[in-house]
Every structure is written in structure tokens, then in C-alpha cells.
Amino acid sequence: MQTLSASTQAVRLGQYIDVSDSHTEPIALTSAYVFRSAAEAAGRFSGGIKGNVYSRFTNPYTQAFELRLAAMEDAEEAVAFASGMAAITAIGLAWLKSGDNVVCSRDVFGTTLHALRHYFGRFGIEVRVVDLTQLDQWQAAINTKTGLVFMETPSNPVQHLGDIAAIAELAHAAGALLAVDNTLLTPIFQKPLQLGADLVVHSAGKYLDGQGRCIAGAVLGSKALMAELRGQLRTLGACISPMTAWLLHKSLETLDLRVRRIGDSTLLLAKWLRSQPQVGRVYYSGLHDHPQHALAQRQQSGYGGVLTFEVGHSQADAWRFIDALRLISIATNIGDTRSMVTHPATTTHGRLTATDRATAHIGDNLVRLSVGLEDVSDLKADLLQALDLRPAPATPLQRCQLSAVEA
Ligand SMILES: *Cc1c(COP(=O)(O)O)cnc(C)c1O
């Protein structure tokens, strides 16, 4: 064979690397795959020959993440998506059509409700919103035109719970599917499919990654339901990046350790905060006097890392408290290694009307904490000094730049 020129060598030599003995799963980013013959290419495209086709819908790293997550959720199969919202949109596109209604709990993730109302509403789909905790409202709203029932439990930020088994029964009696957003508890603390749900959805950049590094989503369920979603993914294309799938595949290895540690810290902080004079109501489903604690014990094996409480009496008190925190970051995310605090009334729920906020129990003095992996005694110390509701000495800029250790 003639000597190849440098430009050809640059793209054709050193191409095949044997990574089969690498203990850590190797990372390989690829959009396409090599076929041994034209016939094999045809077979893979038609599905007659198993194998990868194109990374929009088949990729070994994505598949590895999907396999691992499916096993952990007790699902037959998982399909990964570009984001939690892409996953939720995919569910709506798969199981709602013009003339249907969708029944959804009021305190789901705000963007979920906005997606249903603003976008699905344009296609003649009626959105029926119910109180997560009131079974009679679910019963009244679900009928033979219901294509999909959607819930999130516990709700964020005020930790209302929905009875998954009971709502699944109502959905099934009407021939509808129940989808449960399990982002807050992860499969470590709650397995909705075992309780009768048909679909589980995750915003995977929260606890599944748990390190604040990526945006991704996933839907889990039976092989038949997932075949519908995978077909849709092939055509509509809201796919996860293989790089992100690789990150998530690794982070699942520590999910159990991380969320159990976070759950333990959160319960300790919830109990401790209740004894603080500046703190009003504390919302956490792990507390014995949570109005639905019995349901939490029945359908959850833990309570998660989101904790919400009232500070002082006003927005000013809540803001002063937030600005005075030195270790805990001001960020509207959940499920990072680092604890984060936010003021729901002016951030995540700021677009609601005052009446809607009141209905959702989002008071002006409400603060949400997403507990991270810091030592719980350091978190307590930070909360304690900030509860001293005097004006904060540092400007927010100094605060962000400060390394916690120097503070
Ligand atoms: C963040 C979040 C979503 C949306 O997920 P993205 O990955 O941000 O698109 C959906 N549900 C819950 C409960 C969330 O916290």
C-alpha cells in the first residue's frame, strides 16, 4: 500500500484503541459508528441487526447510564434525555393528544406546569390542576378523556405528599398513565413504579449527578412504554450528551452514600431549626408532626435533602438571614454537594400571583435550604450566626468571593 500523506495519517492512524481492560469506564465521544459492510449498515438501521446507529438515539455510554438507573429504580428500561424538562415534554408528547386532558398536582416544579399550560394547551389539551394531598380532587378531575396524570411527591418547597398507590389506582380506572417526578427522593428513598406508577421522571442534574455539573433527564418504565419514547427520541432529538451520560453513570456509584448522608443531616437540621426562636414553621416530611408523616413512612424510605422554614415575619427578615449566611451558597438549585439557600417567593415562585403563592403556602418569610455534604455542625453554626437577624456586615460580592475557611 502506498505511503499515506500526513493529513490522511492524522485522521486514519492510531484510531483503534483497546480499552477493554480499563477498570474505570473509558470515555469515548462519538456521533457515528463503523459498520463492517453495507449490509450491516442496512440491518442496523432497520433494527434487524442489534447495535449502535447514531448517537441521537443509540450510544454505549448513554445505554450504560440507562441500564444502571433502570436497575436502581426497578424499571424494565430507562430513556435518557437532554434535561428534566425534555423528559417531561417527551412524556406529554407521547401520551397526550388533542381533546385529552392532563391532570397535574398544583405544586409540581413550576416549569412543568408552565409547559403543560402554555405549550400543550395550544394543541387542545386541557390542563386540570388539583391539590396533591386531596384524593377527592384527583378523583373528580380524572375521567375517560384523561391521557396522563402527573405528580411530584414530596412537593418542593413545602413538602406536600401525594399518595402514589391511591392516585395510580384512580388513573388506571380511567385508562390513564401515572407519571411521578421522583427528582427529590431518587430511587434510594422512593420507588414509584413499585407503588403502581407507570412512569418515573428525573431531573438528573440534581441528586443523580449530585455535584452540580450537568443538565439531564430520564424517564423510566416498562419496555413497551420506553419503546414509544425511544422512537420519539430518534425523531424529535432531545438526547443527552454522551459526556453527560458518562458523568451520570459514574455519579450513580455514590448516589446511595450521598443522599443518605444528606438525608441524615437534613433531619438533624430540621429538628434543630424547630427549636430556634426566630424560626416559624419547618416543612420536612421526616418530622413526626408533619401532617402526612404516616404516608411518608409508608411510601418513602427516607426524606431527602430539601428543607423549608419560615424566618422572622417578613421578606426583609428572610433576606437578611439569607445574606448573612457565610458558608451556604445563595443559589436556586437543589441536589449539589454544597448547601444552597433560596427565597422562593422572589425567585422560583416569583412569577406567581400573590394569591397563587398563598395557596401554595409560599410565604414572604419562607426560606428553602438544599442540604449538601458539608459537616452538619458547620451548617448549624452558619445557620445559627445568620439567625441573629441583624444587618449583614459583608456585601454580597464579598460573600461570594470569600472562601468559607477564611471566614
Ligand atoms: C429541576 C427540576 C425539573 C426540571 O429539570 P431540568 O433538568 O432543569 O430541565 C423537574 N422537576 C423537578 C422536581 C426539578 O427539581
Number of helices: 16
Tell me which ligands are bound.
pyridoxal-5'-phosphate
Structural class: alpha/beta
Share in helix: 25-40%
Q: Tell me about the biggest sheet?
A: 7 strands, mixed
The chain-level mean pLDDT equals 93
End-to-end CA span: 68 Å
What ranges have pLDDT less than 50 throughout 5 or more consecutive residues?
none
Rg to the nearest angstrom?
A: 24 Å
Helix and strand pattern: HHHEHEHEHEHEHEEHHHEHEHEEHEHH
Binned strand content: 5-15%
* Largest beta sheet: strand ordering: 1-7-6-5-4-2-3
What's the count of strands? 12
Question: Concise description?
Answer:
The protein has 407 residues and is α/β, with parallel strands linked by helices. The protein has 16 helices and twelve strands.
Overview of this structure, please?
The chain contains 16 helices and twelve strands. With 407 residues, the protein is an alpha/beta fold. Strands 1-7-6-5-4-2-3 form a seven-stranded mixed beta sheet, sandwiched between helices. Helix 5 (110-119) links the parallel strand 2 (101-105) and strand 3 (126-130). Helix 4 (84-95) runs parallel beside helix 5 (110-119) and helix 13 (315-324) packs across helix 15 (376-387). The model has no long low-confidence stretch (mean pLDDT 93). Pyridoxal-5'-phosphate is lined by residues 83-85, 109, 112, 152, 156, 181, 183-184, 203, 205-206, 215, 217, 334.
